[in-house]
Amino acid sequence: MHLKSFKISILMLFIAGLVLSACGDAADNPDSGQVDAADEDAGQDAGQDAGQDAAQDAAQDAGGDLATDGGDGPSLKTWMKTYGDALEDYAFAVLALDTGGYVFAGSTDSLGGHAGFLLMKVDDDGEAIWTQSYEGGTGASAKALRRYENGFIMAGYAFVQGEGSDMMLIRTDSEGAELWRKTIGGDEDEEARGLLVDRDGNILVCGKEFALDTISYDGVVHKLDPQGEILWTKNFGGAGHDYFFDIIQTADDGYLLAGNTNSSGAGLQDGWLVKIDAAGNEQWSKTYGGSANDYGNSVIASSAGGFVLCGASYSYSGEIQSDLWMVKTDADGNEDWVQTHGDDSHEYCFDIIQTQDEGYLMAGSLHSFTGGNTDGIVVKTHADGTIEWREIFGGDLADGLYSVDQALDQGFIFSGYTKSWGAGAEDSWLIKTGSTGQTQTLPLPNIGEACVLDLDCDIGWCLNETLYGFPGGFCTNDCDPMDPISCPGNSLCVDVGNMIFLCLSECAPNESECRDGYDCHDVGGPGACWPGCTDNAQCGETGYCATEYGWCDCMQGQHADLDSRSCVSDDCAWLDCENTRNQNCSPNGGCDGDCAICSGCVDAGFVESVNHCYPPDAAWGGECEKDADCPGTGIPGEDTLCEFATGGLCIQEAGPDFVAEYQPCTGDAGSVGFLHEGVAFCYQACTDDVDCRPGYECTGGLGSMGDISACLSIHDCYFSGCNDTGEMRCEEFGSCWLNSCFDDPCASLTHATGECVGINDDFYCECQDTFVWNPESLDCEDSPCSADPCAAVEHATGACWAVDINYVCACEVGFAWNPQTSLCEVFDCQAEILTEAGISRADGCGGSQVYDAMGLQDSSCTGYDTLSFERVYSMELPAQTTATLVMTPLDEFDAALWVTTDCGDLNGALCVVGGDLSVDSPESVVFTNNEAQSRTYYVIADSYESCGLFDLTLTLSP
After folding, report:
1. 716 forms bridges with which residues in the sheet?
2. What single-letter DSSP state applies at residue 77?
3. I need a surface site. Which of 150, 195, 376, 412 has the fewest CB within 10 A?
């Protein structure tokens, strides 16, 4: 959706009249102050950028009781707490105790600057009762926690610099005092992730172990007696990487191991279940997933029989992002059903439990492509895996959830980490919710203050001037209208439409209490500050104030660049002029240079307007692919807009075709004009839903008198349906889209697997190995690499990578692939100099996009592809000196960091060390120059996806 469309969406939130409500009013009357939106995109865009849940407003000390609705009763406690100091602390596993309170295990960096096991007990209100920490090697972390008699047992790993990692188990008494510990491992790396105390009191721990014979990881499980002595050890896996993350005991006193494998299965990584007997002998092994990466993280036995595996799937989500993934099996591991839950973000499940209603609850993380940040996510499903509700928890920095347990009061306790709140770096994070995920929120500072980036707001996010039109930027955050303290003093909780509640600055009507560029809108008591610029000088970033509605905007012929957050000229790509079906910019039917307005029709029968050409059947409320498909004499992208919804929706705002309220707009007898705040709109007129096309409904309450109806897109189809005869599908968040997979278009394709995936109004088919989907021909075609096009390319290594219907050849060191020439060409390396002073607030988005640590090779020094933007630095490392590099994201993206000895090493073949451990957390690497003279190293400050600001620090030690 264009920037202008987003601003129109925000404006349309107030079409029914600017009726803002203070928190107290909303608490007395939940409907007071709510404003119906004329465009569902407003709520979606605002919600995605701000975070979609009022729980994101939690502060470090959120505590206390909160009466809840839905029958939970007033005794149900909901709170959020952080634990830790200025260093890193994580809560990887949490247990609700039968005697009340909670215990969590994880890691802490407070042990002299290196990490160790952490075990902490808190009471029902989250207040600490006792804390224990345990050193191990040069760094250790507890990943799993179980009760053991009156005490606890933890499992994780201990790392020794230069020697690798071992599994480590620590058993404690009820106060966390250590009773015994056990380290397991030889010369190769071993790490524990899953832990079980079986019915006989034996201990089973599973994880991964490096295998020298295959140069890869195997899944490994050890069984120990109550004193920690190993009874047996079993390894499972093949030539690829295989991992175990969870283990449970089965009804026959055997065990079930869960994880992922790329030694077998249908794709790159597949979910993996291995059933073993009490002696560790394999009884069956099953893989789950498609042609892309799929990961199994947690498994439980189901009350319906069989098991449920949860994790993350790319195969079922379109291979671009991952969705939460559930696989229900029978007792023999055969699939009963598969469910995925997600949107246009990366979503992962790390833990799953079965709830008392026989449904399931998953905890994990969500990484947004648009906002770039990571939040904790909770999804509750019915017994068949269909979604019941979901909640998102997080602030403006990186946050995530790893574990969940059901509390005594039938609420839930979650553990994870947060950077948004707490004492600094990552802090351990506990969230206690009600039975439907509800929680209490606390006041936040900085509401209404000026900002450019989200980082400029202490907590919350920034309504940036260039992107959102708020003069000088405006700090805000989500809030809860039922909670009188969810917004700080001197601010109000306001429903801005689609049940999106934001904190806005409080003011006295008709008095000058708002910042320059803002007006105080009268709401019958307290007022709220809202954009009201009157002069271009109030818009320092865009340089232009649209005085008719008080927003800052890019000047005509410009639009907001979403990466650099500046106004740039409208070029032909922005206006989509190359599609000559609608318009062109040169006499020859093509596009030449910058073009704010295109004219001259190419296709016969198209209507030539003042500013563009449009199809003869174009109408307000009609279908469209882009702004220029819409009718009238307005300017596409300025006042003539194709809104993002099923089939597209043509509207006009402040355009020349408005005649008068209640009257059709010029040239379209089926339209209706109406006013809001003096701004004119053209929409499709209607008297009933049957007047609107599928996916849209007749919505009243419009116009200055509130008695005009128009066709608007449906945004709650779970309740109202899609106004169709079965051709639409109701998506997870209430939007309607064309069910392109209804007639199973993939079933008849020769090389398709039969799996059809719907994407908005379109679809694609899953293809067999060596075949790829061609969206133009709508067929599975031979992979472009099947003809071995790289074999004859000079300076290519021979490796080929299929990217849709195109291909990329891996090139030798010092050469880069040029897709325009299909050649490996000499690479001119440009590296900035890195010193011990480090780099502050570097913008990765301004870097190159040619390095990839995976390098199309068989392995990666970071463990993953690094496909987004990167900055390259050179550094001189003296002989016999160790360098420690830390890359800290400031803008919420998945950073990766690696070091090579050649600036032209685009494929990572000469990589010395690399790291890409977790989303949105700092990445650090340590390496030593063991030679007799100084040496030049090249540092690639990279990312797996997205990009943003980061700090890069360098520390040298002998």
Report:
1. none
2. B
3. 150
Q: Is 256 within 8 Å of 236 (Cβ atoms)? A: no
Alpha-carbon distance values, 85 to 90, 421, 427 (Å): 11, 11, 7
Residue 77 and residue 65: Cα distance in Å, rounded? 5
pLDDT of residue 510: 66
**Across residues 600-605, what is the average pLDDT?**
64
HSE of 70, CA atoms in CB hemisphere, 13 A: 12
Q: What does the H/E/C string look like for 175-186? A: CCCEEEEEEECC
φ, ψ of residue 719 in degrees (nearest 5): -105, -35
Residue 748 buriedness (CB in 10 A; 0-12 / 13-18 / 19+):
exposed
Q: Which two tokens stand for residue 825?
A: 């060409």
- Sheet of 216-224, strand order: 190-197, 203-211, 216-224, 230-236
CA proximity to 318, closest of 860, 911, 773, 799: 773
Residue 455 has phi, psi (to 5 degrees) of -65, -20
Q: How many CB atoms lie within 10 A of CB 111?
A: 18
Task: Place 71 in a pLDDT band, splitting at 50, 70 and 90.
Answer: very low
Tens of pLDDT, residues 85-111: 777 889 999 999 998 999 999 998 877
> In this predicted model, what pLDDT tens digit does every residue of 843-901 receive, in sequence order?
887 778 788 887 655 567 887 778 778 899 999 999 999 999 999 887 667 889 999 98
> How many Cβ atoms from other residues are within 10 Å of residue 777's Cβ?
9
* pLDDT value for 802: 76
Please report, for residues 192, 395, 495, 673, the alpha-carbon distance to residue 709 in angstroms, rounded to integers and kept in the order given. 61, 38, 22, 10
Instruction: State the Cα–Cα distance between residues 169 and 184, nearest whole angstrom.
Output: 8
pLDDT reported for residue 499: 66
Specify the DSSP element, H or E, that contains 810.
strand 806-811
3-state secondary structure 9-67: HHHHCCCCCCCCCCHHHHHHCCCCCCCCCCCHHHHHHHHHHHCCCHHHHCCCCCCCECC
Across 64-82, b (16+ Cβ under 10 Å) vs e yields eebebeeebeeebbbbbbb
Mean pLDDT of 377-387: 93
Query: What is the C-alpha separation between 764 and 70, in angstroms, rounded?
Result: 41
- Residue 585 pLDDT exceeds 80: no
Query: Token pair for residue 162?
Result: 């230069």
| Strand residue runs (E) in 617-761 | 640-643, 649-653, 671-676, 679-684, 696-702, 708-713, 728-730, 736-738, 752-759
- What does residue 46 show for φ and ψ, rounded to 5 degrees? -65, -40
pLDDT, one tens digit per residue, over 717-757 is 877 789 998 889 887 667 899 988 888 889 888 888 888 88
The answer, as to whether pTM is greater than 0.70, is no
Instruction: Please list the helix, strand and coil fractions of the chain in percent, rounded to the nearest 5, in that order.
Output: 5, 45, 50
- In the chain, the percentage of residues whose pLDDT exceeds 70 is 82
Cα end-to-end span (Å), the chain: 54
3-state secondary structure 627-643: HHHCCCCCCECCCEEEE
Identity of residue 859: S
User: What pLDDT was estimated at residue 831?
Assistant: 87
| DSSP assignment string, 332-364 | TS-EEEEEEE--SEEEEEEEEEE-TTS-EEEEE
Quote the CA–CA distance of 824 and 850 in Å, as a whole number. 12
Which pair of structure tokens corresponds to residue 308? 């449920």
Mean pLDDT of the chain: 80
Q: Are 414 and 404 in contact (CB under 8 A)?
A: yes
pLDDT at 181: 95
CA distance 257 to 234: 11
Report in angstroms the alpha-carbon separations of 585 from 306, 358, 570, 627: 63, 61, 13, 16
409/919: higher pLDDT? 409
